Amino acid sequence: MTHDETTELMDDILLVRTQNKNLTIIIVEHEMGVIERITDRCVVLNFGRKIAEGPYRAVAADAQVQEAYLGVA
Q1: For residue 73, what pLDDT is reported?
Q2: How far apart, in whole angstroms, are the C-alpha atoms of residue 45 and residue 65?
């Protein structure tokens, strides 16, 4: 997807969320900016094993997540 298409999709997802408060949306995404913008809660898998779950900021600060996805050794 292009940057514009990604932005449009995020806008659409946020609109659906505001219109449907009891709706759960599951997204598989590797772009952290997308996850940060559109999620209240996220789950991170590494080789099929859950390594973190919670609000974006807490998950992004997790050492295992940083090592697996954010390039921190």
Answers
A1: 61
A2: 9
Name the domain count of the chain. Answer: 1
Query: C-alpha 40: how far from its chain's center?
Result: 9
What contacts 65, CB < 8 A, 6 or more positions away? 44, 51, 52, 59
CA pair distance 63, 60, nearest whole angstrom: 8
- Domain hosting 26: range is 3-70
Please tell me whether the overall predicted TM-score, pTM, comes out greater than 0.85 for this model: no
CA-to-CA dists, residue 33 to 3, 13, 20, angstroms: 11, 14, 23
- pLDDT per residue over 49-67, tens digit each? 999 999 999 999 999 999 9
